[in-house]
């Protein structure tokens, strides 16, 4: 909506608005939607610094995360005022967040006791190996019947265990009953509802289902799982549905976003669940793939959990109200998608901006036999192989940076194909097209490549912010807010663009077979066992 149109439109005509805080791995956004039309009215985005203190470690500063939320709210409120839109029309706020990222803070001082350990972090690899070794038959799926998840570095419980074992401040705070644990949603909701002065310590079922401490059948924290990881239940947030009033915003009146004080926070979904809701995948069998830092394919499987035989996770899709049933999803998780672009930019310096990647790749139109497996954090679905590491192979004297750029985009598509194949095998029903969203979908070459590699059409909504939209929908539909209807007949028709496959399936299969060969080369690289290479005496 351009400024002149907005300024001249009658304020009252807009009706109720709903906002969403979208706190992702690489950036934070605050977005405001019209609850009746789902139109995005205004937003603001701030990048988040990631720090890598040691190899395989990934951290973010909890205070920077919180500050970025305030900054996004302030800037968006300024923009709304410029558009002559009344901020007091915002009736609810939803929160959506990077999942699994783990924080511990002191409930008396409100201070974080360590940096947030990001989901991608690998410092817990030895903890994970130790846990798997003590299971019967060294089985990484030992807890899957309760959690839907393999024992992996990815989930929060092992990160929390590491913090309690290795950070003195955390250990002390747990002993003196001052520690609070939470994923990013819990930290934000606690801070935004008052913090140490009466902040609400809660999470929703979707975020809780990514901790390895939550039983996806009983829909609550599981005492046996907590005992298994030796985590005291008193530090855990209260688990709530994804759509209910958790508490009211408390914001300093001298901030531009001060008028948001008193607005209910009434929606909470992990980012991938939020995208499923934002893509309106409410029916059993509907699926979406989100291209963010990682890549996440989720398929709604209805009100009964389905366990995968092909390396997918079983997770909570959403529970849209206290008395509503929970819906489950099968999930294929890929750790590195958009992060490979950041790596080519920040680590190798072969591009300055992400749009440049598309131009470079388009220049050559092929990877010329070069394959790039970006297993920077090991391999997630369908392999769950923490010892894998990144590899670039098939290099010749002919290979240049354009081929590498193309191979990086192909890597995202091949990884998606692997999880789509697993999903098709698990359900026996093949997806006829793929609904996509997320930052990387603005890359048209990537979308075309994806259709070519999957051999099915790729469908992209024209409003790419589906994650934030999902959180706004959950918030606006909550009991006591009720400004957004989720009845199928009331949902707005989404305009989208379709990318049809353009290469022959044989060529696609050939490239995919090569990719699988490259993946095998990346396996079993970083093992903690000493390697006997025949000259053990030499250092």
From TrEMBL:
Q: Using the record's annotation, list all stretches that form the Carbohydrate kinase FGGY N-terminal domain.
A: 18-278
EC annotation from Swiss-Prot or TrEMBL: 2.7.1.30
Superkingdom to which the source organism belongs: Eukaryota
Q: Name one GO biological process term.
A: glycerol-3-phosphate biosynthetic process
SUPFAM superfamilies per the record? Actin-like ATPase domain
Domain Carbohydrate kinase FGGY C-terminal residues, every copy: 288-478
Q: What keywords appear on the UniProt entry?
A: ATP-binding, Cytoplasm, Glycerol metabolism, Kinase, Membrane, Mitochondrion, Mitochondrion outer membrane, Nucleotide-binding, Transferase
The subcellular location is:
Cytoplasm; Mitochondrion outer membrane
Pathway given for this chain reads:
Polyol metabolism; glycerol degradation via glycerol kinase pathway; sn-glycerol 3-phosphate from glycerol: step 1/1
Q: What class of enzyme is it?
A: transferase
Chief location? cytoplasm
One GO term describing the cellular component: mitochondrial outer membrane
Q: Per the similarity annotation, which family is this? A: Belongs to the FGGY kinase family.
NCBIfam families assigned to the protein according to its UniProt record, in alphabetical order: glycerol_kin, PRK00047.1
Protein name, as recorded: glycerol kinase
UniProt lineage: Eukaryota, Metazoa, Chordata, Craniata, Vertebrata
Gene designation: gk
